[in-house]
Design brief:
It is a single chain. Helices cover 71% and strands 3% of the residues. It is mainly α. The protein folds into two domains: 263 residues, no CATH class; 156 residues, no CATH class. It has a two-stranded antiparallel sheet. Strands 2-3 form a two-stranded antiparallel sheet. Helix 5 packs parallel to helix 8, helix 6 crosses helix 18 and helix 8 packs parallel to helix 10. The longest helix has 41 residues. The radius of gyration is 24 Å and the shape is globular.
Length: 477
């Protein structure tokens, strides 16, 4: 590169960093301002059916009330009994963070959204910054900037980051994981890059699984798919990227450990009284709460690894594979059944009567699950009246879903775009896999809508990358 071109490139990089810094500052100021406005609206009781006195939005973020209650309880434990007792009590990680925020800011602003704003703001700014970074890797600087602006201003997502939900730290950790795997396909690592990337993946995966442990299959699928695309990249470029491969291999090995340790039993019984500590569990519709623990044991006729005896040879392998798939289908069906129980009486249920118990059930329902994960709420639902969100809430969800449809169409353009098509394919594949899994287990549209924010962010990035491709082609023409 000539000296003149080098100077131009350096100036362009400085301008991009300047714009990125300005964007993050604007995002932070906007988030704090809207959080204060929500809190003020709640205290003034401007819309009491929608916003309570603490600034919590009733729907579709009703989980906030439960997390607020648990965090207040944990805060009281901390104040009354000290740090040791606080650490001993069982609670989700994000509830612990909320309890610390309540302990510090609660005496000043109460146990409302302003007390949690430092945590929520950090997660929100981290998400916008990670969208910038992933967008640059997949579609270039302008695509990254455009994607960050869209995500920053996404209405329901913006409000969700001001509640007492686990979604913001989860999405930030997921995007950090996606960013590292994306760089396997866009950069050539040195040994130091591999070490930094490996540590970053482990930290992001640890945070992600601490918030939502059931996300482990998606983490492993992301690593495996990224490694497969890395092999394709090396074949296409006719070179070996050994440090990229070392990072990918280490992530896959570490991520597979929980699978090797788990799944060894197929029967469980409940022990009472429990030898474990934790929150009491109660059956639906009952006022009786009994403390119980789950004890796993080998079923009759089981082999040491937990699978029933089967004939030797090829028949044994086929039998074990079928049993493994059946077990996965039953696990997904069990999660689905719990969602059905938790959402009894919900007005936005989809296929609530469908049961998944065998591999056949799973395979037959897979196309429908993909349809629900990618496109629900469907256009026929946009103009209806929601049970909790009313007509305006349904209309807003319809507008946002229509925008996602557009991003999906533009994502197809990004996939066929050189030279970053492998990175775009990674994001698209992970999004399709994650949304299909959600369509398999989540039967309530409101819950599904909120759970998809992380994958919708990836679709926005792909959409802006595809839009950048179209703009470049038009400029060239």
């Amino acid at each position: 590169m000539s000296p003149g071109r080098r100077v131009i490139a350096v100036d362009a990089a400085r301008r991009r960093r300047s714009w990125s810094a300005v964007l993050l500052v604007v995002a932070a100021v906007m988030h704090v301002t809207i959080a204060m406005a929500l809190f003020a609206a709640g205290r003034a009781q401007l819309a009491p059916r929608l916003i309570d006195r603490d600034g919590l939005v009733a729907a579709p973020f009703s989980d906030s009330y439960e997390y607020q209650h648990d965090a207040v309880w944990l805060t009281n434990v901390l104040r009354a009994r000290g740090v040791a007792e606080w650490a001993r009590r069982s609670a989700p990680a994000h509830v612990r963070m909320l309890s610390l925020a309540f302990a510090v800011l609660g005496p000043v602003v109460g146990h409302g959204i302003l007390a949690a704003e430092p945590i929520n703001l950090a997660c929100y700014v981290a998400i916008v910054a990670l969208v910038l970074a992933i967008g640059r890797e997949v579609g270039g600087p302008r695509a990254g900037l455009a994607a960050a602006v869209v995500v920053m201003l996404w209405p329901t997502f913006l409000v969700s980051t001001m509640q007492f939900l686990k979604d913001p730290p989860f999405i930030a950790a997921m995007l950090a994981l996606v960013l590292v795997v994306t760089t396997w396909l866009t950069r050539a690592y040195r040994w130091s890059d591999a070490v930094v990337a490996g540590v970053a993946v482990m930290l992001a995966a640890a945070l992600l699984l601490t918030v939502r442990a059931r996300f482990l299959p998606v983490v492993v699928a992301l690593a495996l798919f990224g490694a497969a695309l890395l092999v394709a990249r090396q074949i296409a470029e006719r070179r070996v990227l050994r440090w990229n491969c070392a990072c990918a291999l280490s992530v896959i090995v570490v991520g597979s450990v929980p699978f090797a340790r788990g799944g060894r039993t197929i029967e469980k019984v409940a022990a009472y009284p429990s030898r474990e500590t934790g929150q009491p569990k109660s059956s639906v519709g009952s006022d009786v709460a009994l403390r119980a623990s789950v004890v796993w044991r080998r079923a009759e006729g089981a082999t040491p690894n937990g699978a029933p005896e089967a004939p030797n040879g090829g028949a044994a392998r086929a039998h074990r594979l079928r049993q493994l798939v059946d077990r996965a289908a039953w696990s997904l069906g069990d999660v689905r059944r719990r969602f059905n129980v938790d959402n009894l009486g919900a007005g936005s249920a989809i296929d609530g009567a469908v049961e998944l118990s065998t591999a056949g059930d799973l395979l037959r329902y897979l196309p429908r699950a993909m349809q629900i994960g990618l496109w629900a709420p469907f256009p026929s639902m946009w103009l209806g009246v929601g049970t909790h969100v009313g007509r305006s809430g349904r209309l807003l969800s319809g507008v946002e879903t229509l925008a996602i449809y557009l991003c999906q169409a533009l994502a197809l353009v990004a996939i066929v775009r050189a030279p970053r098509r492998l990175a775009a394919l990674l994001l698209f594949g992970v999004t399709a896999f994650g949304l299909t899994v959600m369509g398999l287990v989540v039967t309530n549209v409101g819950t599904l809508y909120r759970f998809r924010y992380g994958f919708w962010v990836l679709l926005v990035i792909l959409g802006m990358a595809g839009l950048e491709t179209l703009v470049q082609r038009r400029s060239a023409a």
